[in-house]
What does this fold into?
Amino acid sequence: MNVPLHKCRVSSVECRMSPLDRQDVFNSGHVSRVTCHVAGAFTLIEMILAIGVAAIVLVAINAVFFTALHLRDATQAAVDEAAPVDQALTILRRDLQCAMPPEPNGIFSGDFKVGNVTSLGTSLPVSAEIYTATGTLHENDPWGDVQRITYELKDAADRNAAGKDLVRSVTRNLLTETTPAIEDQTLLSGVAGLRFSCFDGTQWLDAWDTTDLTTADTNLPVAVRVQIQMAGSTGDPVEILVPIDSQSRTNT
It folds into this structure.
């Protein structure tokens, strides 16, 4: 059974009680025995303080979030900028590590040239010409894994771009009696300079030609150093050092 509640005021405190409880209160005369539920509320000062604290917390969160976004964008830009350079260096390193040792009158074990080189099928000098076993074998292609690779700098396709393009030219058909088909692959853009250096065991040389019998460079160098200077960069050039283990056998 629901007993209706009635309001009364005892000592200026608003209370809710049943009629039986109110009768007991007036009969006993003890106000302290009454259980009252005081209706509470926030004051204006408390509201202002709460809003101020919330605003400070939101500003701090916004600053942390903005810093995190800025750091993410900077990191992503650095990774995107370094990715083409890393890819170009990886391909360069693989070609040099798989260089074929020269042999007299060899077709698939061709020459190794560094410096101002005039390669077959090109009209302009290239920086390096390498016979390397990095060709991809495919069941639908008749070519082996040995291919001729040249590296050179060419004018950028975009005239407004700074620097030149680092181009890797690939010749797969080494048995052709006509001018071979050459596939140009642009590895890197914005290059200001490209330099190959060869180590003969005692010193670094800027030129190397295994076809020149008048020199002692008739075998592969012990190591090759490649330096790439990016356009607009005032720091040191990007550099890799590749040791070469393959050597051609000689009578000596």
About this structure: The chain has three domains: 1-38, 43-69, 81-243. The longest helix spans residues 44-97.
